[in-house]
Amino acid sequence: MKTAIVWFKTDLRVEDNETLIKAISQSEQIIPVYCFDDSHFETTSYGFKKTGSFRTQFLLEALENLDDNLRKLGSGLVITKGKPEVEIPKIVQYYKARKVFVKREVAFEERKTEKLVQDKLFKLRCEIETFSTSTLYHAEDLPFSIKNIPDVFTNFRKKTEQDATIRKPFEKPKQIYSPSIPVLNLPTLIELGLEFSELDSRAAIHFKGGETEAIKRLNHYFFETKNLSIYKETRNGMVGEDYSSKFSTWLALGCISPKFIYNEIKKYELQFGANESTYWLVFELIWRDFFRFMFKKYQTKFFLYSGIKTEKVNSKSLNDKLLFQWINGKTTSDFINANMLELKLTGFMSNRGRQNVASFFCNELNMDWRFGAAYFEQQLIDYDVSSNWGNWAYLAGVGNDPRGHRYFNIEKQASDYDKSREFRNLWLK
Ligand SMILES: Cc1cc2nc3c(=O)[nH]c(=O)nc-3n(C[C@H](O)[C@H](O)[C@H](O)COP(=O)(O)OP(=O)(O)OC[C@H]3O[C@@H](n4cnc5c(N)ncnc54)[C@H](O)[C@@H]3O)c2cc1C
């Protein structure tokens, strides 16, 4: 086959990218493409932007870096903007491509777009092939069919760890053959309907998008500082760069793959020894897989007020004043306020913080949890549809929590995890 398109989405990397490798092996030349989907920059029915400025800034950096890395291999990145079902067929026609290679989606809207594109390509006699590239365990290697995946994480994890193996990562291509690709032409934040948000100097870390930065971060966290060896003890921290891996932002856009991280953990263990902490990072990556597979299983249910539960739940109303106070760190709890300010001013919040502010939203403010999830969707740099809506549903008691309804005692959490008030002082003084 002569020419193929590689349509990049949330797989902005050249390492361990099966889609790219398969396209290269089946074609004489390839055209790497990224499409800014207009719908990603709209306002949702919850009144928040689908993508806020922190994440968009990170995305622009990631695309610039992908273009750089592709050019080093002989190619480059074509940028388009609009509706993918219009823009991708246009590129196919322009380059006379016979096939489109693309990452497979799990969530509803993304699958709908994929189907629309597929239908248009069919009319152009252009094939489309999708690849599952964002999980640690490949969906085909799971010891259950998607509909039989256990709803309880521990049951899913134990059987998967016992019966499935993690595939080896694909090596990055040695060379890519492409026609001359025009100079990268990215839209600006303003063109995407957003304004630049200055990063607060108190940010735990300055996230910079791109595969190069992701690998740099991994080397820092693993081999330079050996923080991986103490991850289990520090992961509930809230202040600073190294209490946790901070891989989530790069994972969300696919600047790094979980299989690549796993492979590096194995190398690290050979060099510095395995312990509970080195395993625990894998354990957390399995949580990430779990929510993705749950999305495959339950599809649109995670967006319903009653989540994946079958019993009827009466939905709660929204109080604009309480929502405003929660977003702007003006609630009755200083611990919640500090966390919410961090999110507003940096686009990031620790896992401990997320659990508490979500529990507070559902249990203390007693509001429809989906508004909280939608605000996170706008604000988080690491927003990932399955991890976000899956965790929110879990905390709202309508997801995968076997205990039903988890209730965090916020005062106790604050004194357990911010005993010296270091975190609260950082954000509230
Ligand atoms: C209400 C709520 C919303 C969340 N929304 C998101 C989201 O949109 N995107 C996102 O990536 N994570 C989300 N998380 C999960 C988790 O909080 C973040 O992944 C983590 O805080 C990111 O920091 P880290 O990379 O330093 O994590 P680490 O502690 O270093 O963990 C390593 C990796 O494991 C995965 N992981 C860890 N915890 C979880 C978890 N509970 N669920 C799924 N994956 C996990 C992530 O990929 C993370 O990067 C959410 C959690 C809650 C409670």
TrEMBL record:
Question: Where, if anywhere, are coiled coils annotated?
Answer: none
Which InterPro entries does the entry mention? Cry_DASH (IPR014133), Crypto/Photolyase_FAD-like_sf (IPR036134), Crypto/Photolyase_N_sf (IPR036155), Cryptochr/Photolyase_FAD-bd (IPR005101), Cryptochrome/DNA_photolyase_1 (IPR002081), DNA_photolyase_N (IPR006050), Rossmann-like_a/b/a_fold (IPR014729)
Q: Which cofactor does it need?
A: (6R)-5,10-methylene-5,6,7,8-tetrahydrofolate; FAD
A Pfam match: DNA_photolyase
Cofactor descriptive note? Binds 1 5,10-methenyltetrahydrofolate (MTHF) per subunit.
Listed A to Z, the keywords are:
Chromophore, FAD, Flavoprotein, Lyase
Q: Which GO terms describe its molecular function?
A: deoxyribodipyrimidine photo-lyase activity; DNA binding; FAD binding
PROSITE patterns per record: PHR_CRY_ALPHA_BETA (PS51645)
Annotated residues for binding of FAD: 231, 244-248, 284-291, 382-384
GO BP, one example? photoreactive repair
Which PANTHER family does the entry link to?
CRYPTOCHROME, CRYPTOCHROME DASH
Question: Which NCBIfam families does this one have?
Answer: crypto_DASH
The record's family statement is:
Belongs to the DNA photolyase class-1 family.
Tell me the function of this protein.
Answer: May have a photoreceptor function.
Q: What is this protein called?
A: Cryptochrome DASH
